[in-house]
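Structure tokens please, single chain.
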Amino acid sequence: MYAIIETGGKQFWVVPGETIQVEKLEAKAGQEITLKALWAAGDSAGSTGDTKALPAAKVKVEVVRHLRGPKIIVFRKKVKKAYQKWQGHRQDLTEIRVKEISLN
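Here you go.
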């Protein structure tokens, strides 16, 4: 069974037991959260899922930990103006584990 969920403005294809990193969620480590299945939930990658059960499809996930992503360097330069600027950024992330997908 699979589902497509949306969190942090991005969509993720998830299956039970999978661990993914998403943008930071306001939940503590070990807490369970229920997310709504966005586009599909079904038995295999080739099927479109049960569209009548889709509005009630829910994905139960567990927050594993909070972490920070790798450092990304933002570099700006204006040619012939002697302007250069470096800036670093690390995104706050949450690692979640998909526990179950239910169609009701």
